[in-house]
Specification:
CATH topology of the largest domain: Rossmann fold
Number of helices: 8
Radius of gyration: 21 Å
Number of strands: 18
CATH superfamily of the largest domain: L-asparaginase, N-terminal domain
Oligomer: single chain
Order of helices and strands: EEEHEHEHEEHEEEEEEEEEHEHEHH
Strand content: 15-25%
Largest sheet: 8 strands, mixed
Length: about 350
């Protein structure tokens, strides 16, 4: 392809979007990115220079982990000066986790990183992959009248909508509209035109920095009526688990079970972090609104506002890896670092 107005790097990590059906066997296989235009001839009509690469071993997104996140982030960092934007092709199941992780790992990001995928393989007649892929490239290449990137953060594009990556969750295993951003508006909607609804980005202050030393000594606990504390007590061992995300009821409510409360108290006292987020699909934690959450402030539980589960887990991994002291971790947990939560 001839070089156009923007240079975009496509990074393939695995997933449904990168699969095409073998004409002879009918089996799904990874398609060859050296022949992108033969699979998606519409790309040849874009005035965008495209290059492609892949992580060392493309995987199903269910196998995604912090080491893979580090490889994706490192690829973006190493190529940051050469490209105007990046499109990461990724399986949909854990895409929101990867988008959240990258938003923390790519510190001071000032260019677009768009994750996309599909519910059907790219070689299927009814695939949603082509539109997702083409529009993601257009968004990654888009510039304003001053020649700056329109999008300057990590985002997910899926089925005509662009979402802030660390505000997004997968909500459907069968619909093309697989993602939602429950507590933050869409960044763009693609119709006849791409209608951007982007925030006002702050002028660039610092160069891109890369942080990949995430600490995965974190756990997730979803409470339910009558949960058996015998089965969960082993989580609250600070030598093994540095932080726990608890998905609570409603606006942050937890049962005042004496054993549960005392276990949390001892865990925090010995250096553990407990982050409280709601298991509701929309809304926010408001510790102290009801008696069933007022005691959490006294215990030192951190209210997670409207963090998604994906953002809560990856933010905790990031902060435990970045800061050696508890006070710095907790201060940062209470702040919105990259637009991942609404702070009143």
């Amino acid at each position: 392809m001839e070089k156009g107005n923007s240079n975009v790097l496509i990074i393939y990590t695995g997933g449904t979007i990168g699969m095409i059906k073998d004409a002879g066997t009918g089996a799904l296989k990874v398609f060859d990115f050296e022949h992108l235009t033969s699979h998606i001839p519409e790309l040849g009509r874009l005035s965008i220079h495209l290059d492609s690469t892949s992580i060392q071993e493309p995987i199903d997104s269910t196998e995604m982990n912090p080491e893979c996140w580090a490889e994706i982030a490192q690829t973006i960092f190493d190529n940051y000066a050469k490209y105007d934007g990046f499109v990461v092709l990724h399986g949909s199941d854990t895409m929101a986790y990867t988008a959240s992780a990258l938003s923390f790992m790519l510190e001071h990001l000032d260019k677009p990183v768009v994750l996309t995928g599909s519910q059907l393989p790219i070689g299927t007649i009814r695939t949603d992959g082509k539109e997702n892929f083409i529009t993601s490239i257009e968004i990654a290449a888009a510039k304003d009248e001053n020649g700056q990137s329109m999008l300057r953060e990590v985002a997910i594009y899926f089925e005509y909508s662009l979402y802030r990556g660390n505000r997004t969750s997968k909500v459907s295993a069968s619909l093309f509209e697989a993602f939602r951003s429950p507590n933050y508006p869409e960044l763009a909607v693609a119709g006849v035109d791409i209608n951007y609804r982007l925030p006002v980005y702050e002028p660039k202050q610092k160069e891109l920095q890369l942080f990949t030393e995430l600490n995965n000594q974190v756990a997730l606990m979803k409470v339910f009526p009558g949960f058996n504390m015998d089965l969960y007590e082993s989580l609250f061992q600070v030598d093994r688990v540095k932080g726990i995300v608890i998905e609570s009821f409603g606006s942050g409510n937890l049962p005042r079970n004496e054993r549960f409360v005392e276990t949390i108290r001892q865990y925090i006292h010995t250096g553990g972090i407990v982050l409280n987020i709601t298991q509701c699909s929309t809304g926010s934690v408001n510790q102290g609104k009801y008696e069933t959450s007022s005691f959490l402030e006294e215990l030192g539980v951190v209210g997670g506002a409207d963090l998604t589960t994906e953002a809560a887990i990856t933010k905790l991994m990031y902060l435990i890896g970045k800061y050696p002291d508890i006070s710095s971790r907790i201060r940062a947990l209470k702040k919105s670092l990259v637009g991942e939560m609404t702070v009143n």
